[in-house]
Amino acid sequence: MTRYELINNLGRIAQSGTKNFMEALGEGSADVNLIGQFGVGFYSAYLVADKVEVVTKSMQAGSPQLKWESDSGSSFTISDANDEEAIDGSGTRLTLHIKDDAMQYLESSKLEELVQRYSEFIEFPLQLWKSNTEYEKVPDIEANADLAEGEEPKMKTVPKTVEEYEEMNTQKPLWLRSPNEPEDEEYKEFYKTAFKASYDEPQKWSHFRLEGQVDFKALLYVPGMLPFELSKDMFDEESRNVRLYVKRVFINDKFEDIMPRWLKFVKGVVDSDDLPLNVSREILQKSKVLSIINKRLVRKSLDMFRDIAEDEDASKYIMFWNNFGKYLKIGIIEDDKNKKELAPLLRFYSSKSGEEFTSFDKYIDGMVEGQKSIYYVTGEGRKNAMQLPVIEKLKTKGYEVLLMTEPLDEITIEAIRDYKEFNVIDATKEGLDLEDGEETKKETEELNEKYADLREFLEVQLEGKVQKVTVSTLLTDSPAALVQGAYGVSPTMQRYMKAQSVASGGDGSMGSMNQAILEINPKHPIVQDLEKMVQADKESAKTQNFAMLMYDVASMTGGYEVSDTGSFAQRVMSLMSSMGSSQSGEVGVEDSKEKNSDEDKAIEPEVIL
Question: Keywords on this record (predicted)?
Fold first, then answer.
């Protein structure tokens, strides 16, 4: 620089020489890789230095070597540089006198960290003076002291310190090249290097450019496996997935609104020449840049997921789903705009899928004739869900039932009211309608009236445990089942909420069971026997214990916890004792038959069951 340029560029705050230079170039400056805009970047040196020296020589013929220096005050001096300070040819050298509390910035490891974080993709080479240890072989003087004539000298390996400049930014910004120009191996290598994932290989990537209201380039990756930091906390704040660059200068990787949190696992870079280097969340929001970038990144991410799902090798999407399926479920819950795009990507186990996953589309393809809805149940594990009494009639009709076995599954599926033209229905809720016609509805009404005394008896016995008791025609093998009202909470969710309450210091009490509804099967012998017992003597302990035992069994098969296990155990033991007594009585009868003579047969003992 000349004296005038030193005064104009370094002596004035908020005077950007770079910006003036770009303007002087006019329209032809678009491809010039310069980043200064505000005239304050130079003064950031005083954050770590209490004095700055600049030695410079302009390319103009006859220009002298000049020295600009200033401490952290408001003045500066310009003088001729002496021979010891001179530099070869033209150029500029900056010397920072580091503050006592900033000595860490003299450590090569700290400088290397800063370069790799903020300037890894700057086009111009950045070199750092480093000391490295190398090893070389030299003659072993002691071992060779008695070396015989003609014998080959013995060597030893010794360490040697080598000091030299090492280029820090050898990794080139792959996203600046035209999409599809790089080879697959280049994309993979860039992912491993840029995201420090040498152990992982990306499953998919998307390289694209957007030109219009906002010009930016982006490169997104779907990891091959769940990043380590997300395995502990799926929304770990330190897991910086998408990096924002402006003209290859790293700006931030904590702009949460660039990507929704359900895409936390997607890695990538976004680079725009249109944004200022001091870009902030507020600036992005005001310029509407954030919304534009967000929409395009989400769209491209969904495209990648669909490509994996449609791959001929089905195992690829299974691997993706096992790693990242929970994020897509969160997307269904939180991102209403993209819910319909995400729904086809969901995978479930079902009553017919065995060990394989199924999807909504596959479920629809397998519907039986006349089926008009998609059915699901919630349960703790596939085995328990398959044994729920409420799906007996569904299985009898040949309907497939989706199995929601985790609390997150339940929240996710409740956010999906319909898929295409089919309603998505919870079979564990009251009022399940299998569209069996008016005759079935009439039959149900008649049965409710017929068993009114039994229903009333059970409602009294189970006061505080169930909301009401109804007769159901949906049960085939079970005597009774517990279902929830329209706003009730499944037993799986109840356990989850209880655990959360206890973890947060609550007492874990739950009132959701009051929403439960007991449905009874009028065709089952147990219900028919109980009805007779109620008619005969509803006040007897035997009748009441029988009713409570039926309720306990319905609770267990429905996935609920039996609150009073002591009373439950007593009722079971009482039943076992009565069965044992009955069997003993029967044996006594047989024995007496063998021993009694013909004249004794008239006085055989009576056995009461």
Answer: ATP-binding, Chaperone, Coiled coil, Nucleotide-binding
- Structure-token pair, residue 562: 């039996």
**What is the average per-residue pLDDT within 260-267?**
94
Q: What is the mean pLDDT of residues 403-427?
A: 92
- Tally the C-alpha atoms within 13 A of residue 32's C-alpha that lie toward its C-beta: 14
Q: What Å distances lie between residue 153 and 134, 135, 160, 407, CA to CA?
A: 22, 18, 21, 74
Of 160-169, 490-499, 500-509, give the range with the top mean pLDDT: 160-169
Query: What would the two tokens of residue 440 be?
Result: 């079935």
The model's pLDDT over 516-533, given as tens digits with 9 standing for 90+, comes to 899 999 999 999 999 999
Q: Is the pLDDT of residue 277 over 80?
A: no
Query: Which domains does the chain show, CATH number per domain?
Result: 3-106 (3.30.565.10), 174-308 (3.30.230.80), 444-561 (1.20.120.790), 564-595+604-609 (no CATH)
Looking at residue 167, the DSSP 8-state letter turns out to be E
Quick one: 376 exposed, middle or buried, by C-beta within 10 A (0-12, 13-18, 19+)? buried
**Per-residue model confidence (pLDDT) at position 21:** 47
Q: What is the pLDDT of residue 426?
A: 92
> For the chain, give me the number of helices (H) and strands (E)?
19, 19
Write b or e for each residue in 263-277: b if 16 or more Cβ atoms lie within 10 A of its Cβ, otherwise e. Answer: bbbbbbbbbbeebee
- Helix axis angle, 565-595 relative to 541-557, nearest 10°? 120
* DSSP H or E stretch at residue 282: helix 281-287
Question: In angstroms, rounded to a whole number, what is the distance separating the alpha carbons of residues 247 and 34?
Answer: 8
Task: Please give the annotated binding residues for ATP, written as ranges.
Answer: 1, 9, 16-17, 37-42, 92, 281
> What string of DSSP letters covers 357-397?
-B-HHHHHHTPPTT--EEEEEE-SSHHHHHT-GGGHHHHHT
Question: Quick one: pLDDT band at residue 40, thresholds 50, 70, 90?
Answer: low
**What's the whole-number mean pLDDT along residues 548-560?**
90
Taking the whole predicted model, whether its pTM rises above 0.85 is answered as: no
The answer to whether 70 and 46 are in contact (CB under 8 A) is no
User: What does the alpha-carbon distance between residue 539 and residue 310 come to, in Å, rounded to a whole number?
Assistant: 64
Q: With left for phi above 0 and alpha for psi between -120 and 50, is residue 196 left, alpha or beta?
A: left
To 5 degrees, how large is the angle CA 157–CA 163–CA 165? 130
Which tokens in the block code for residue 443?
């039959």
> Residue 169 pLDDT > 50, yes or no?
yes
Rounded to whole angstroms, the Cα distance separating 525 from 283 reads: 72
d(CA 145, CA 136): 20
Q: What are phi and psi for residue 283, nearest 5 degrees?
A: -65, -45
Contacts of 403 (CB under 8 A, 6+ apart): 348, 349, 350, 351, 376, 377, 379, 382, 385, 386
Q: Would you state the torsion angle of the CA atoms of residues 291, 411, 402, 305, taken in this order, to the nearest 10 degrees?
A: 20
Cα 219 from Cα 261, distance rounded (Å):
18
Helix (H) or strand (E) holding 502: helix 491-503
Among the listed ranges 78-92, 207-221, 296-310, which one has the minimum average pLDDT value?
Answer: 78-92
What's the confidence (pLDDT) of residue 237?
77
Q: Per the annotation, where are the binding residues?
A: 1, 9, 16-17, 37-42, 92, 281
Query: What digits encode the pLDDT tens for the residues 234-262?
Result: 888 777 789 988 888 888 887 777 889 99
